[in-house]
Design a protein that fits this description.
This protein has 2 domains: 3-71; 83-128, no CATH class. The chain has helices spanning 3-15, 22-32, 38-51, 61-66, 83-92, 96-104, 111-128. It has 7 helices and no strands. By secondary structure, it is an all-alpha fold. Helix 1 (3-15) packs across helix 2 (22-32), helix 1 (3-15) runs parallel beside helix 3 (38-51) and helix 6 (96-104) crosses helix 7 (111-128). The structure holds zinc ion. Zinc ion binds at residues 100, 103-104, 108, 114, 117. Zinc ion (ZN) binds at residues 100, 103-104, 108, 114, 117.
Length: 129
């Protein structure tokens, strides 16, 4: 590895949030630089740090480089569901709570309670007729 490359790697290493396995990371870095520019590798860290879910640990630097993680694509943030979206989704799957709203004013706490009540009502109706 050239001195210039080593210097470049040190800068990358400084930005990377998890500092383990430096020698392995250095080798992986040199390999990664055959297909990516120094800038791409640095900018990849920024995106990675911004989008990494809080439940996950930062990848080992070597792994991150070997897997080409600087090319990871992050989707747009999932938009919040509005009450209307939620409702049309529930309607589309025929969710019990939609049925319940109509029959029982949405008072049932669970699907089981709702279906029990509905069955009882239907049985009563059947008897009455
Ligand atoms: Zn109900």
């Amino acid at each position: 590895m050239t001195t210039a490359m080593q210097h470049e790697f040190e800068e990358w290493w400084d930005s990377y949030p998890r500092k383990v396995g430096k020698l392995a990371a250095m080798k992986a870095y040199a390999k990664a630089r055959k297909t990516a520019t120094a800038q791409e590798l640095r900018e990849g860290i920024g995106r990675y740090m911004k989008h990494k879910p809080s439940y996950a640990d930062y990848a080992h630097p070597q792994t991150w480089l070997n897997q080409g993680r600087w090319m990871d694509q992050y989707g747009a943030e999932r938009p919040m569901l509005t009450p209307t979206d939620t409702r049309s989704f529930l309607e589309s799957i025929g969710h019990w709570s939609i049925d319940c709203e109509r029959l029982h004013g949405g008072t049932c706490q669970s699907g089981n309670a709702h279906y029990d009540k509905r069955d009882a009502e239907q049985a009563m109706k059947a008897q009455a007729s």
